[in-house]
Specification:
- The chain is an alpha/beta fold.
- Helix content is about 30%, strand content about 20%.
- The strands form 2 sheets. The chain has a 12-stranded mixed beta sheet.
- α1 packs parallel to α2, α1 crosses α10 and α3 packs parallel to α5.
- It binds S-adenosylmethionine and iron/sulfur cluster.
- Iron/sulfur cluster binds next to loops.
- The site of iron/sulfur cluster has 12 residues, from loops.
């Protein structure tokens, strides 16, 4: 039987063109909003190998995915990441994929920035929530700010385009915003602020950490001239140009301003599970298809079937009624 060649669409007619692939759920940091200090990771034997990750990526590329983001956990702690990237680069060379990007905490970037660039990566997101070394250590439970700053320098030297991602933590971002903005924009990097999402138990209070970016943006307008950009970037960030710095500032507001109607993405975890929506508990195990006699066709069928059941929108809520969240962590499904 031949494989379906139509591009992937979900049950609501939304084209699926973007895959976020979590290459490991492990991480060298323990950010307070992401995972607990003593996180229980997927057993090593259950993590997908490079060949399996490559097969899954290939199935999505065949179904019309144009962009793949490698994420985690911390993707740069995976030793065979360059091998995976070199394999995926064939889709770039063949024009079947527009780009491969990476999300990283930056801790290993000084060592690996050149390798990423050599493997065809042109853009990366680096997570950085504060420029205060003590506060950074506290938020990440042990991280060194200097490692990240050196990593960012190395990435710039390697020619990578960088967006700084800052989770907007109440009590942190109000004070850190201007420093982060000036740092990012004076180094030619965009800054994106992200609302804290209630994913997994972290040993901290979500309600205390959460700040509505819709509200925060209004406060920023008192001091900064923010002009909304006409062009859509295809992602969930709403971008503005900051007149005083000339740089780009993005707002990612899954809670205060939902963007599900234009969702074009799915996630695959390093455990082989396909998550069609970050805000729902459901997932589909792709391993049986991977282990089948015709993995390409079986993967295609399993993915198409799951996409028909992709929810219309997430059900997150953080408000006076409490927190309506999801049990699994961002690091499992690929944030
Ligand atoms: N370790 C890498 C990093 O930190 O960039 C990649 C994986 S991390 C899960 C991807 C992004 O998700 C980061 O920008 C991180 O700040 C964000 N993140 C993690 N947990 C989150 C949460 N509960 N709510 C909102 N963003 C979260
Ligand atoms: Fe690790 Fe990224 Fe999660 Fe922080 S946000 S604990 S760096 S996976």
């Amino acid at each position: 039987m031949t494989t379906d060649t139509r591009p992937f669409v979900d049950g609501f007619g939304r084209p699926v063109t973007y895959l976020r692939l979590s290459v490991t759920d492990r991480c060298d940091l323990r950010c307070t909003y992401c995972m607990p200090q003593h996180m229980i990771f997927t057993p090593r034997k259950s993590l997908l190998g490079v060949v399996e990750l490559d097969r899954i990526a290939e199935a999505f590329v065949a179904g019309g995915v144009r962009k793949i983001r490698l994420t985690g956990g911390e993707p740069l702690v995976r030793k065979d990441l360059p091998e995976l990237l070199r394999g995926l680069a064939r889709h770039l060379a063949a024009g079947r994929l527009d780009e491969i990007t990476v999300s990283t905490n930056g801790s290993q970037l000084a060592r690996l920035a050149e390798t990423l660039a050599d493997c065809g990566v042109r853009r990366i997101n680096v997570s950085l929530d504060t420029l205060d070394p003590d506060q950074y250590r506290e938020i990440t439970r042990g991280g060194e700010l200097s490692d990240v700053l050196e990593g960012i320098e190395a990435a710039r030297r390697a020619g990578l385009s960088i967006r700084i991602n800052s989770v907007a933590l109440r009590g942190v971002i109000e004070e850190q915003f201007e420093r982060l903005l000036r740092y990012a924009h004076s180094n030619d990097m965009a800054l994106a602020l992200i609302e804290t999402m209630p994913l997994g138990e972290t040993g901290t209070s979500r309600a205390d950490q959460y700040l509505s970016l819709t509200e925060f943006r209004k406060q920023l307008s008192d001091k900064w001239s923010l002009s909304a950009l006409e062009r859509k970037t295809g992602g969930p960030a709403q971008y503005v140009e900051v007149k005083q710095t000339g740089g780009l500032l993005g707002f990612i507001t899954p809670l205060s301003c939902n963007f599900c109607a234009t969702c074009n993405r799915v996630r695959v975890g390093s455990n082989g599970r396909l998550y069609t929506c970050m805000g729902h508990e459901g997932s589909v195990d792709l391993r049986p298809a991977l282990a089948g006699t015709e993995p390409a066709r079986q993967l295609d069928l399993a993915i198409r079937d799951a996409l028909m059941r992709k929810p219309e929108r997430h059900g997150f809520r953080i408000g006076q009624a409490g927190v309506n969240g999801i049990g699994r962590h961002m690091s499992v499904l690929g944030g």
